[in-house]
Design brief:
Structural class: alpha+beta
Radius of gyration: 53 Å
Mean pLDDT: 81
Oligomer: single chain
Helix content: 55-70%
Low-confidence stretches: 375-379
Strand content: 5-15%
Number of strands: 5
Length: 418
């Protein structure tokens, strides 16, 4: 309910509670002023005074009772009926008391319990008012009766029209109040949804930040494994050879290889931190980078290795090239550390819409289904290679048996360099 509606309701309540007092007082003043002409005789005047006092007493009594019995009730119906009877009797004594009877037009809905009584009450008031308008009771002849009948019809029509308009206004007010209440509920629900959305947005930002941190940690871990770990492993191997070298030239050769590996690993580590492409791809495409990697790995490990390109080579997207190169480096590292292979073959195939990298060795092989879980300090191995391939919508398959070598195949979409 709006402030304007509240103000109107307060005014109506004031009219219903104080209106009968004012109308009775006004009617009493008019009746006293016309008592000589309209209320002749001492007995009639005393009767009028007694009824006026009764009317004021009735109003005082109802003012206390209505506080504990608001709304339509049997007590309200009784009060309305007694007040009408007093008003009708006073109107019989003096027509100006019909003003007091007119109070029944305003509060029938608030006092009378029952739809029918709410129409009968105002109609009874119209009878008293019409009789006063016709010249007052008792009627002197049939002319007054005809006039009374006409006035009663007019007053009844007016009551019907006003009652209908009042009902429509109340319905509109009720509908407006329901609409406002519904809008308030909708606004409250919308505000709640906005608050929940803001909380969800904050939560998503936190999760996105955490996911980004975790992804960056995984990337750095994989890069460190593929660069520093493999480089340090190669350096250790070269230093072990130096320790057992039979002569100085051989020791110097392996020291130079260890120094080169250290510089290469340092450069790769720096590039990994800044998420740059591997050094091998800085100036060359993937085929040249893979060929150089295979050749350097063969020289360092002493294992025969060959590299082959099939199909029409294309300039691949940096992310695709880096992924396949890292997979090849990890596969070669595994071949030298675990497979004890004597021969390794690497093939890069361009097949229109995809690129396939195959690495095969004749090492001791293993059972792919019996691989142990990666420990807290373990390497990334096959899991890391598979994760790299899946990160660019590719896949990794491994075929191996104990004593029969290993074949690894990485299949990724062919995405050309922009």
């Amino acid at each position: 309910m709006t402030a304007a509606d509240t103000d109107i309701e307060r005014r109506w309540e004031l009219i219903r509670s104080k209106g009968p007092y004012g109308l009775l007082a006004f009617a009493t003043l008019l009746s006293a002023a016309t008592a000589v002409e309209l209320t002749p005789g001492t007995t009639r005047r005393i009767a009028a005074a007694v009824l006026v006092a009764a009317g004021f007493g009735l109003q005082l009594w109802w003012g206390r009772v209505s506080r504990t019995r608001p709304g339509p009730s049997a007590a309200g119906t009784g009060y309305y009926t007694v007040r009408w009877a007093l008003g009708f009797a006073l109107t019989w004594l003096n027509p100006f008391f019909s003003f007091y009877v007119a109070a029944g037009y305003f509060d029938a809905d608030e006092l009378m319990s029952g739809r029918r009584l709410r129409w009968i009450g105002p109609f009874a008031c119209a009878i008293a008012v019409s009789s006063a308008q016709a010249g007052g009771l008792p009627f002197a002849g049939w002319t007054q009766w005809v006039l009374f009948a006409g006035l009663l019809v007019v007053n009844s029509v007016i009551l019907t029209v006003v009652g209908h308009l009042t009902t429509q206004q109340e319905e509109r007010s009720r509908a407006r109040a329901e609409t406002i209440a519904e809008l308030e509920r909708t606004n409250a629900a919308l505000q709640q949804a906005l608050d929940e959305n803001a909380a969800l947005h904050t939560q998503l930002l936190v999760q996105a930040r955490e996911a980004g941190v975790a992804d960056e940690r995984r990337r750095l871990a994989a890069e460190i494994h593929d660069t520093l770990a493999q480089g340090l492993t190669g350096i250790i191997a070269q230093l072990q050879v130096v320790a057992n070298a039979p002569d100085l030239p051989t020791a110097r050769t392996h020291l130079d290889r260890a120094s080169a590996l250290a510089r290469h690993s340092l450069g790769e580590a720096r590039r990994s931190v800044h998420n740059l492409a591997p050094v091998a791809l800085e100036n060359d495409g993937l085929p040249e980078a893979l060929k150089s990697t295979v050749v350097e790995w063969a020289e360092r490990t002493g294992v025969r290795a060959g590299f082959t390109v099939t199909g029409t080579a294309e300039h691949l997207h940096d992310e695709v090239s880096a992924t396949l190169l890292r997979i090849a480096q990890e596969a070669l590292s595994n071949a030298s550390r675990h497979a004890r292979a004597t021969r390794v073959g690497v093939t890069l195939s361009f097949l229109g819409d995809e690129v396939i990298l195959d690495i095969r060795d004749d090492g001791r092989g293993f059972d792919p289904l019996a691989l142990p879980e990666r420990g807290h300090f373990g390497g990334f191995g096959l899991a890391g290679m598979r994760a790299r391939a899946e990160r660019i919508a590719g896949c990794l398959t491994v075929e191996s048996e104990p004593g029969r070598g290993t074949a690894l195949s990485a299949r990724v979409p062919l995405v050309r360099h922009e």
